[in-house]
Amino acid sequence: MTINETEVKVRYQETDQMGVVYHANYIVWFEIGRTHLIEQLGFNYADMEAEGIVSPVIDINAKYKKPLRYGQTATVRTWIDHYDGFRVVYGYEVYTEDEQLAVTGSSSHVCVKKSNFRPISIKKHFPNWDEAYIKAMED
Known about the structure:
single chain; alpha+beta; Thiol Ester Dehydrase, Chain A; seven-stranded antiparallel β-sheet; 4 helices; 37% strand
């Protein structure tokens, strides 16, 4: 399985009154990890969007286990957990500097035409992405 690792430095504005990373910021970090994984596989969303296709989130979840604080560096690990040619589920783990698991999560996505939000088959419209996703799950 191909796993991307992306480091994120916790910025002050990402913390809450308790001094820990505000929960919604982990969702942003998931997106950073997902984008980097896609780039690692040789693709990017800009090319997809240039063809009139976007990839909305249809489900997302996160489980919080250990807080991160301002000034720390988190490591976001991202992989393709499930792919069926239509729907992609990305898995995420966020680790503290001392490699303790802080957050786990997943997000589900489909590709749709930007003009009407009708779903498309990734396998049919983006065969190179399809091949790379399948390979990434096998590695």
